[in-house]
């Protein structure tokens, strides 16, 4: 267990958010294609190849909507888990930096501007916060058992 593991754990939401955006784009593409088909064929669709294509698009849309629901549930649970860890920190600056970065997805530059600190000081706060999280994990104050196998 090291700082890299802590960063990877806290940064898991970034990956899920990217997956969410990707699926949203796919879903939008399928919806647009289905709309184009219904506009092109109107009420004349009563069977055959066009109705089969519409059924395929509709099936894909339902599949992607289900994937979105699953990812949204994972995101909510992960945000809760990460928030729980962050709020265990004793220092309010450390909490604020980690919340802005790992929950609100702000860049380090945005965080520095918002907090009115130099960027290098934000990095220092982040490093102290990550070491604090690492110590809480090592002491057993925080138990993390997930795909990273952090113990």
Please render the helix and strand layout as text.
Layout: H1 3-10, H2 12-41, H3 49-86, H4 92-103, H5 108-115, H6 119-139
Key structural traits:
single chain; 151 residues; mainly alpha; 6 helices; disordered C terminus
In short:
Helices cover 77% and strands 0% of the residues. It has 151 residues and is an all-alpha fold.
Descriptive notes:
The chain has 151 residues and is mainly alpha-helical. 77% of the residues lie in helices and 0% in strands. The chain has six helices and no strands. It has helices spanning 3-10, 12-41, 49-86, 92-103, 108-115, 119-139. The chain is elongated, with a radius of gyration of 22 Å. 15% of the residues are buried. The model is unreliable at 147-151 (pLDDT under 50).
- Regions with pLDDT < 50 over 5+ consecutive residues? 147-151
Number of strands: 0
- The number of helical elements comes to 6
What structural class is derived from the secondary structure elements? mainly alpha
Q: Note the beta-strand portion.
A: under 5%
Q: Overall 3D geometry? A: elongated
The profile of the biggest β sheet is: none
Give the mean pLDDT. 86
Query: Kindly, what is the distance between the CA atoms of the first and last residues, rounded to a whole number of angstroms?
Result: 8 Å
Radius of gyration: 22 Å
Estimate the helix proportion, in percent.
Answer: over 70%
Tell me the series of helices and strands, N- to C-terminal.
Answer: HHHHHH
């Amino acid at each position: 267990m090291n700082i890299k593991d802590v960063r990877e754990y806290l940064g898991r939401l970034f990956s899920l958010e990217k997956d969410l955006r990707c699926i949203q784009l796919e879903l939008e593409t399928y919806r647009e294609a289905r709309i184009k088909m219904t506009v092109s064929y109107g009420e004349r669709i009563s069977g055959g190849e066009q109705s089969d294509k519409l059924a395929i698009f509709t099936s894909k849309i339902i599949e992607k909507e289900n994937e979105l629901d699953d990812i949204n549930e994972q995101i909510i649970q992960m945000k809760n888990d990460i928030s729980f860890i962050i709020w265990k920190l004793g220092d309010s600056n450390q909490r604020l930096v980690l919340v802005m970065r790992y929950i609100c997805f702000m860049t380090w530059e945005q965080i520095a501007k918002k907090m009115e600190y130099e960027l290098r000081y934000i990095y220092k706060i982040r490093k102290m916060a990550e070491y604090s999280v690492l110590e809480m994990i090592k002491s057993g104050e925080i138990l993390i058992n997930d795909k990273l196998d952090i113990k």
